[in-house]
Each structure stands twice: as structure tokens, then as C-alpha cells.
Amino acid sequence: MSIDDTADLHQAGTVRLYRSIVAGDLDTVQVDGRDHLTRRALETQFRRAPKPLPEGQDTIRQHAERIAAEAPPLSDEQRQLTIRAFRSIPDQRAR
């Protein structure tokens, strides 16, 4: 893909792309005397943009929050079981 096409598609400036090429972060190939970016270079440099959700569809977080809001409150026994379960998980932040 040409550098100009890549800049348009990924909303990146051509200067940024050329700097990445000079720095060796992007691989290019010469086609008809012009630089073109390889597919592998594009996939490593740019992540695919997430597709927008259809109108009215909840995100996972919104869905979970709605379910939690509609759920009945936990009994004391359920609350204690949940607390014990989380306390038994080793703290990964200490590493």
C-alpha cells in the first residue's frame, strides 16, 4: 500500500510514516520507484480500529452494570463467601 494511501486509511500523517521508515520501524518495498508499505509492517504498526456498536446496543460494561443493578442484594452468607474467595487469590501487584 502506498504511503499516502496508508496515511489516509489510518489517519496518520505522512511525515510520521516517513520518520518510522527512516527509523527502521516500518518495512517498505519499491514498486515503480515508489515506496510501499508491506502488510506485515502495517499490521505491527497499526491495530485495527474497533467497529462501532449498532445503535442501542450496550457495551459489555454497560450490560454488566445493568445486570448488577437489577440483581437482588446478596445475603450475609453469600457476601462472606465472596469476600473469602477474593481474599484467597494471591495479590499480583506485589510482584
Structure description:
Helices cover 49% and strands 8% of the residues. The protein has two domains: 3-45, no CATH class; 60-89, no CATH class. It has helices at residues 3-10, 14-22, 39-45, 60-70, 76-87; strands at residues 28-31, 34-37. With 95 residues, the chain is mostly helical. The protein starts with a helix and ends in an 8-residue tail after the last helix. It has a two-stranded antiparallel ribbon. The mean pLDDT is 81. The protein is built from five helices and two strands. It is elongated.
Low-confidence stretches: none
**Straight-line N-to-C gap:** 43 Å
Which descriptor suits the 3D outline? elongated
Task: Count the DSSP helices.
Answer: 5
Q: Multimeric state of these chains?
A: single chain
In the residues, how many domains can be counted?
A: 2
The biggest sheet, with number of strands, parallel, antiparallel or mixed sense and barrel status, is:
2 strands, antiparallel
Q: Give the beta-strand count.
A: 2
Side by side, the strands of the main sheet go 1-2
Q: In sequence order, what are the helices and strands, one letter per element?
A: HHEEHHH
What class do helices, strands and sheet pairing give? mainly alpha
Q: Report the helical percentage.
A: 40-55%
